[in-house]
Amino acid sequence: MDNVLRRFMVSAVALGLATVSSSSLADPDLARAGRAAGYEHIHSASLEAVSTPEVIRSLFGTGNQPVKSPSRIWQVLEHGEKVECLSCIPMVSTLLYNSHPKTREIAAWWLRRRIFGVFGPGEVYSQVVATLRNAAETETHRAYAANALGEFLTHSGAKHLAGAIRNDASPVVRLASVRALQRMNTLGPNNEISFAMADESATVRLAAVEASTRINAFTDVEAVVARVDDESVDVRRAAVLAIGTMRAADALDGLIALSSPDLEADASVRKAAVWALGQIADSSALDAVQAAENDPDGFVRDAARVALARL
Length: 311
Fold this sequence. Notes:
The chain is mainly α.
């Protein structure tokens, strides 16, 4: 009986949808009325029609410098997603180097939808690549160019970001390039994410370790494990958390060592190590986790109690 009733209800819903669909097709005025009713409570200023080429151009003053607030720029470009305006492209491209990160983000978002104006030879994409590769540019501009390549989400840009990670003298640019590869969900053509884990800058190493759990194709667990004795507390903690996320049982001995206050002075690293041991859930870590219940730090003790439930 239940199956009969279920088939009846499915048939009734399908028939109702078909009736609405056929009625709308037969009566265009009815379809328009339905759309109008759906939008009647939305303020006209929030609709896409508010952005026109003229409105986009009005964001800029002389020298294509923005004259509106970041929130206004975001509103106009977001509503103008489908607005075709070739003359607007050079103006919006200047926003890729704006000091406000959200302004740079929305500019790249809008530009990557302008296929013929952005990705042709000599256009915005090529200009951004040239900026990233030009050592005469400021490190800030090179970093913003790396940001833009990441936001363009065009994988041909990965090789240029990889080159910056390996060769740029500025840690600011290398950091931006690592984050851009993460934004693109790619390791780089020669696994530059792992390469960056050995960077001389702790901020770059940290970004690379954090990227390891956010990039789907990452499998180089050994590169992460190598960072558990990093001189930077932040990098050590990030490496331990990444190992726990990956449930890398091969790193068990290192995690056990880091869970002890005799071998790891920083409580946040010990807490991360105990958490990771719980994630891996290998019974050989039981003694270490039980010992962590007596750690001087309350957060480590809390992590130990949670981890014990998994062992």
